[in-house]
Amino acid sequence: MPKPRLFLIDAHALCYRAFYAIRELATSQGQSTNAVYGFINTLKKIDKEFHPEYWAVCFDTPARTHREEKYARYKIQRPVMPDDLISQIPVIQDVLAAYRMCCLACDGYEADDIIATIVRKLKGQGVDIVIASDDKDVYQLAAPEVSIYHSRKGKILGYQEIETVLGVDPRYEPDLIGLAGDPTDNIPGIKGIGPVSAKRLINIYGKIENIFQNLDQIKSASLREKLRGQEEMASLSKQLAQLEYEVPIEIHLKDMKSTEPDYPRLFKLFSGLEFKRWAEEVAVRCQSELEVNLKQAAHAEDIQALMKRMEREELFLFMTAGDFTTPSNGRAAMIYIAFQEGDIFQVPCDRAAVLAPIWENPDIIKIGHDIKNELKQLWSFYPAVRGPFFDVMLAAYLLNPSQRNYEIPPLAWQYLNLPFSEEQGAENGLVILRRLYPILKAALEQKQLLGLFHDIEMPLTFVLAHLEDAGVRVDRHFLQELSAECETKIQAMHQDFIRLAGQEFNLNSPKQLSEILFKKLKLPVVKKTKTGFSTDEEVLRQLSQQHELPARILDYRHLAKLKSTYIDALPKLIDPHGDRIHAVFNQVGTETGRLSSNNPNLQNIPIRTELGAKIRRAFIPSTDGRRIVSADYSQIELRILAHLSRDQRLNQAFQHHEDIHRYTAGLVFDIPVSGVTAEMRAQAKRINFGIIYGMSPYGLSKDLGISLNEAEDFIRRYFQRYPGVKEFMETCVRQCEEKGYVLTLLNRRRYIPEINSPNTTMRQFAQRQAINTPVQGSAADLIKLAMIKIDAALTQQNLESRMIISIHDELVFDAPQSELERLAHLIRDKMENCMRLTVPIRVTVKQGYNWLDLTEIG
Fold first, then answer.
1. How far is CA 199 from CA 58, 194, 329, in A?
2. Same CATH fold, 473-581 and 288-470?
3. How far apart are CA 647 and CA 42, in angstroms?
4. Does the domain formed by 473-581 have CATH 2.30.30.100?
5. Is 577 exposed, middle or buried (0-12, 13-18, 19+ CB in 10 A)?
6. Would you kindly state where each structural domain of the chain is located, as residue ranges?
7. How far apart are alpha carbons 550 and 525 in whole angstroms?
8. How many CA within 13 A on the CB side of residue 620?
9. What is the pTM of this model?
10. Is the CA virtual torsion 310, 316, 322, 327 positive or negative?
């Protein structure tokens, strides 16, 4: 029978590893969480793989250690712990407390000293001890019953493996450091003695004391001279490396027994940290008992009685449920209906058609979650369904657009302090929605967001549901031809690469590419990574000025990415029962209010490249007698900037219908507009749009390939010509610092707590967000409002044209040829006049046989 296992966790080492191993991760409120996530993820991995019966997590403390008392320069070269990591230590300790794990710390001692003390006390007491640490200092504790868990390798190293790694008996690790030193901890060792010599001496003589007692027997004269007179320094270095076995802590094996976590507390912590998956896992273990009285309404008389009840109510809550897998092709099996109080009713969808008059009644509020997807289910049973609707998900989004998850479980915890899991079913979900509705409605009203909610987001839900349901036809044959064309180009490129590199190599191997570029071709190293020399896009762009190969590799990467991401992927997304793609348009996917799309992500097709633009040719009208119509706002964000900033020159330029980039170039270069060159205009265009995103001089210098001084001068002259823009930007930042949020023209809020962060990088990024959001968010409000008005007009005028895509500042339609002129007039009217600005709004409308080859409709 195997012995029980005790895992001793070196928290200090694991915290640092997690912090640097994971990209920046933070909650919507700005709390860094990368170390927390990595730390807990490692513990969960250990638990899943090894099921320890006992645990102890050992921490350092800020207090001065006994080693620093002995040697003031101990670890002195190590940088101070980053603030973002310091802030996460108490959070990690809170999570460990919720897991009911034993946590230990002692002033004056390091975590591995506590581990050594526990090992000394428990070794030989019938328990296998595993030390979880990537710090080699703990190797000295290895023994037949004491092993080391290496988190980077994800494996346990036994005594023999550690001896092989060290090159000496693990007991002599302090002696090894005593001779060779340890630059990581600033332990000096003996000057001139390296690890190889130290290992050879230890394997002959053993510990340091024996080496100095047998100094005269050492054959190498130079080695003897390096050692002579250094016994005191070697002894001090060994003491610094030697772990302390007598830390004054009282600990017993029973205190480290693994036990059931405090699930409600753990759920609260994971929800607050926005660890969605973990919170859901824990929620299953601490589900709240909700008062649910579920009634079946399966027979005609039951449904009639339910209908009479619904007619008397001013609102009801609903949720569809069933065996459907995706919103586009699944079918709901049940509709659950609830009221402000009382029973919850379960109605089979195939018998629910009799309730149609209720769904068509404009005086009854229908409350649900993710109404867009619910609508596509409801239309199967109630084609004429009408509002008003109240979407709990959209309400929560408007209240906090930075949140990562608007599903019912996190909202239940956030607003009701209730652990909830979707496994509890639709009837319990309706109880949660019933409680959330009045809270969220009141919060929207208090923050003056009800207008945005009812006038923009809820009507838009219907528009987007229609867009997704209609889909867009895709020319599968054209994509197959384009894929074959790309494959031919890729094969030809391979021959070019062999010619330019002088040998074959794997293009997808950064290591092989690095060897070709920097070793064989002797190109200068631009940037280093943990594993070698970087070959990322920025590096290749710089190197392409010196050699043709990096430029060709960039071409290859662009081609290969477009082929795999779109050209080969789009046919797989075509509805198997038709010829259309049903992209999903997400209302809660961005913090600025802009729509995002996926399956496919239409917004990421790089149309400024020839191949990227070609992909648009695959999007075609639904039938041969129809056309694709595209309506695109002209420089809408710059027009909104002019309106918000009230800058006199910027407003005048748009009011006089100037080419804004040529006009800006004339101002910045202080020349007549007639003298502006194409290059000058391109530079002015970069800064015009860069300003909206808070571009720094450094960013502009990289973007334009000019010096930092030139970029600074460029921006200085820009603000001299457009002082209102500078004042607007400063006001955005100042107001955000004071209030914690910024507003768009239609009162959309975005909270930016990082605006007052002590972390300079985070604060500067927040300042750019504070400048950009009012502009980009207002543009999002504008196009959403236009979509609603256009959709309503198409219905009112009984047109066959329909909207099929919304992407950035562009709307795409599928229209009969006979309606083109009428549709173009309607689109311009609604898009240009749905919001009044201090400058005119302009829209370009084009039509064609596909989304690429378009001609303007006059």
1. 30, 9, 68
2. no
3. 54
4. no
5. exposed
6. 5-256, 288-470, 473-581, 631-636+779-856, 637-761
7. 13
8. 13
9. 0.77
10. positive
Q: Which letter does DSSP use for residue 257 in this model?
A: B
The backbone torsions φ and ψ at residue 729, rounded to the nearest 5 degrees and listed phi first, read: -60, -45
Note the maximum CA span of the chain: 106
Cα four-point dihedral sign 610, 612, 618, 619:
negative
- Please tell me the predicted confidence (pLDDT) of residue 215: 74
Q: How far is CA 251 from the centre of its chain?
A: 42
- Superfamily covering domain 5-256: 5'-nuclease (3.40.50.1010)
Domain 631-636+779-856, CATH class in plain words: alpha beta
274: left (phi over 0), alpha (psi -120 to 50) or beta: left
What are the backbone angles phi and psi of residue 50, rounded to the nearest 5°?
Answer: -115, -15
Count Cα atoms within 13 angstroms, Cβ side, for 606.
Answer: 9
Helix axes 678-692, 760-796, angle to 10 degrees: 100
Give CA separation, 770 vs 399, 686, 725, in Å: 17, 20, 14
In tens, the pLDDT along 655-680 reads: 999 999 999 989 988 899 888 899 88
- Decide: 19 and 87 in contact? Cβ < 8 Å: no
Contact 244, 114 (CB under 8 A): no
CA distance linking residue 458 with residue 391, whole number of Å: 7
819 DSSP β-pair partners:
none
SS3 707: coil
- pLDDT, tens only, 293-333: 888 887 888 888 888 888 888 999 999 886 433 333 456 68
User: What is the per-residue pLDDT for 326?
Assistant: 38
Integer CA distances (angstroms), 58 to 51, 89, 347, in order: 19, 12, 55
Cα 282 to Cα 265: distance, rounded to the nearest angstrom? 10
| Residue 185, token pair as written in the block | 């901890």
Could you give the angle at which helices 660-669 and 678-692 cross, rounded to 10 degrees? 100
DSSP element (H, E) containing 856 = strand 854-856
637-761: CATH topology is DNA polymerase; domain 1 (1.10.150)
Task: Report the distance separating Cα 69 and Cα 71, nearest Å.
Answer: 6
Q: Mean pLDDT, the chain, as a whole number? A: 86
Classify 629 as helix, strand or coil.
strand
- Determine whether domain 288-470 maps to CATH 3.40.50.300: no
Q: Do 42 and 18 form a contact (C-beta atoms < 8 A)?
A: yes
Beta-sheet strands, E only, within 714-825: 741-743, 749-751, 802-807, 810-816
d(Cα 682, Cα 364) in Å, to the nearest integer? 55
Lookup: tokens for 655 = 């009011």
